[in-house]
Specification:
single chain; 321 residues; seven-stranded antiparallel sheet
Length: 321
C-alpha cells in the first residue's frame, strides 16, 4: 500500500520534506518533483513584513503563486500592483518579477519544470563542503545561471508602470476567471487554460455545496488540491477516511482511486493539476444541453468522459453510473 502522506498541513513543520529559514523569510517543501518533467513541486513561502525579493527571471519552468494570507506589491512584466489573499499569479519563463511584502504573507508556490529545490540542495552541499565558494557572489551568480534557475537584471522595481492587479500579466483574482460553468451543487471556475500552462494542464477552482461528492478512477497523474474554504472528506483506496480542512493540501498519489465529499456548503478547492481537457469537456456538455437536452443522459456523459480521458466516475447530481 502506498504510504505517501495524503493530507499536508503547511502549518505543521513535520509535514515538510525540507525547510530553509532566515531573518526575512522561510520556506518549506511539501511535494517533490513528480516525473522527469518536474511537475507540481510545491512549497509554502512565508515572507515577513518589509521583505523584498529583487526583480529577477527564470530561464525555464513555470511558477504559480496562490496568496493564502497577507498582501504584497508584485512586479510582473514591467507592471506593478498590490496582490492580496485569494489572488493567483502565473509566471512563465523569462518574465521579470519581484515582490515587496507590506505585512507577513504566506503563499503556496507550485513549480513546473524548475527543479527549484534541487538547486537549493546543491547550494547546501556547496555550503557544507566549500563555504568560501558559497559566500562568493560571482560564483553564486555563475552557478545559478548555469543551472538555468535565476538571473537578476539589476533593474529597479520602482522604474515600472503602476496599475491595478487585474492588469498584471498572469493574474487571476477573486471573481476573475477565464471561464465559469454552473451545475447543480458545483461551480467550476477555470483560472488558467492549458495554453497558458505550456499545454501541460489546466488550473481550476471548484466551489461545492454540502455533501456534493466526486469520485475518481485511477488517474494517471497525482492530484494536488488546496482547500481554501470549508472542509472535505477524503476517501482513498486502501486508507481510512480523512478530513482535509481550510489551509490544507490534498496530495493523491498516481493511479490511486479516491473520492472527495464536501462537508460544508461553500467548500472551495484549488486544483493545481487537471491534465485532461476539462474545459473542452464542459464546453461540449453545455453546448449539447442547450441544443439537445434530451440527449444528455448517462450514456452520453460516459462517452464524453471517455473521449476526454476524464477520471471522474461519479459526480453528485450530474453523473451517477
Amino acid at each position: 500500500m502506498n504510504t505517501e502522506r495524503i493530507i499536508l498541513d503547511p502549518k505543521d513543520p513535520t509535514h515538510a520534506i525540507s525547510a530553509v529559514s532566515g531573518k526575512e523569510d522561510s520556506a518549506h517543501s511539501f511535494v517533490q518533483n513528480v516525473h522527469i518533467s518536474g511537475n507540481n513541486e510545491m512549497n509554502d513561502y512565508i515572507a515577513y513584513e518589509g521583505t523584498s525579493i529583487p526583480l529577477h527571471t527564470h530561464d525555464k519552468g513555470y511558477e504559480l503563486f496562490y496568496v493564502q494570507e497577507g498582501e504584497m506589491t508584485a512586479v510582473l512584466g514591467g507592471y506593478q500592483a498590490k496582490v492580496k489573499s485569494g489572488d493567483m499569479l502565473l509566471i512563465p519563463p523569462a518574465m521579470p518579477h519581484g515582490f515587496t511584502y507590506g505585512k507577513e504573507t504566506v503563499w503556496w508556490e507550485v513549480m513546473n519544470g524548475m527543479f527549484m529545490w534541487d538547486g537549493i540542495w546543491s547550494l547546501d552541499r556547496i555550503f557544507e563542503n566549500c563555504p568560501e565558494k558559497y559566500e562568493d557572489k560571482a560564483f553564486r551568480d555563475q552557478f545559478e545561471r548555469r543551472k538555468g534557475q535565476v538571473s537578476y537584471p539589476q533593474f529597479p522595481m520602482k522604474a515600472v508602470t503602476k496599475t491595478e492587479a487585474e492588469n498584471l500579466p498572469g493574474f487571476s483574482g477573486k471573481g476573475r476567471f477565464y471561464k465559469t460553468y454552473s451545475f447543480p451543487g458545483i461551480q467550476c471556475r477555470l483560472r488558467y487554460p492549458k495554453w497558458e500552462m505550456a499545454g501541460r494542464k489546466e488550473i481550476w477552482e471548484f466551489e461545492l455545496d454540502e455533501q456534493i461528492a466526486v469520485s475518481f478512477t485511477h488517474y494517471v497523474s497525482h492530484e494536488l488540491i488546496a482547500v481554501t474554504q470549508g472542509s472535505v472528506k477524503v476517501e482513498v483506496q486502501g486508507r481510512d477516511p480523512m478530513t482535509a480542512k481550510k489551509g490544507q493540501i490534498i496530495n493523491i498519489p498516481n493511479f490511486t482511486a479516491h473520492k472527495l465529499t464536501s462537508l460544508e456548503s461553500g467548500t472551495t478547492l484549488q486544483d493545481f493539476n487537471v491534465q485532461f481537457p476539462l474545459m473542452l469537456l464542459l464546453d461540449e456538455l453545455v453546448f449539447t444541453k442547450k441544443q439537445d437536452p434530451q440527449n444528455v443522459d448517462k450514456a452520453f456523459l460516459k462517452e464524453r468522459f471517455d473521449k476526454y480521458q476524464c477520471p471522474y466516475t461519479e459526480i453528485t447530481g450530474i453523473f451517477v453510473p
